[in-house]
Amino acid sequence: MLKRLITFILMLILSGASFSESDFPSRPVTLLIGFEQGGTLFTQAVTLAEILSEKLGQPVTLETRAGHGGGTAAAMIASSKSEGYILLFTPSFPLTDYPARLQVSYKIDDFSYIAAISADQHAFVTSQWTPFDDWAGFLDYARQQTEIRYASQNLTDRLIIQEIAEKEGFKVRVIPVSGGAGMAPLILSGDVELAFSGGTHSRYTDSGEMRVLAATGVDRLKHYPEVPSLHELGYDLGMQSVRLIAAPQNTPQYQIDILSKKVKQVINDDRFIHVTENVIRQPLLTFKDNDLKLFLHSQEQQLLRLITKQNSQD
Questions:
Q1: Rounded to whole angstroms, how far apart are CA atoms 296 and 113?
Q2: What are the pLDDT tens digits along the chain (314 aa)?
Q3: I need a labelling partner for 274 at 20 to 30 A (CA). Which of 48, 102, 286, 290 fits?
Q4: What are phi and psi of 28, to 5 degrees?
Q5: Model's pTM, two decimal places?
Q6: Across the strands, what pairs with 215?
């Protein structure tokens, strides 16, 4: 009798665990964004949330917590105990830049990674009002000015422009902004001559309101193949960032597996492909788990080398 009772209890426990895993998610999921509405990240997130909600069978709601270039949202996820019910959608630089430079409450390994979904198209951009339309013209102009006003979105692009200014002999005044939504008005109005853009420029280049001067990564931009990269222009500098989805570190593996499978379905959905490749003009990308972590750590090491180089010059 006792043996049968124990067997029955074990069967209940096992069936309960099985039900719990197959039932995920059993309530709405939150997609947290660390930037204001108006940039390409939010545009992409709207479509991502809509399709992911269909795949998961639960509402996926968007929530923004702007601050510290995406660092505020990253810190919230790193400390969350909500498992796979709250997800971070972010460019990778808040996870690689801030732990390397500031005393933040998180590090790269403090997250469970679901997938990378697209590659940011970082660039230096200017407006239709400036008297130059390529990098050489910008340098000629910058050297003749008392200072250049520059809109910066993160620590790495700040380090890069300061290094270039030192090398090329011009002065730069850095104006920090929160994402593309903060950058665009300054460029469009002519209040700054140069800005870093993570992709927001794609909305304004066809009309001529913004011009792309240089790709800040190693390679040229997919949709602006005529624009040179910093490496091609002779600078041993560059930054790469991917857009990724991460969960709190305590998220059970079965939830990560389910989310990864559903996100892969989102990436293959024609609606998501259209928004990513045609609207915000980013190439699709698929990294997951260990490959994504290796990429993040490599970017962090590149940043640390740049910081060390600049410190040795001071």
A1: 11
A2: 445 444 444 444 444 444 456 689 999 999 999 988 888 899 999 999 999 999 999 999 999 998 877 889 999 999 999 999 999 999 998 898 877 676 788 999 999 999 999 988 899 999 999 999 999 999 999 999 999 999 998 878 988 999 999 999 999 999 999 788 899 999 999 999 999 998 889 889 999 999 999 999 778 998 899 999 999 999 988 788 899 999 999 999 999 999 999 999 999 999 999 999 999 889 998 765 678 888 898 888 877 777 776 666 65
A3: 290
A4: -60, 150
A5: 0.78
A6: 123, 229
Written as six digits, the tokens of 141 are 């102009």
What's the full length of the chain, in residues?
A: 314
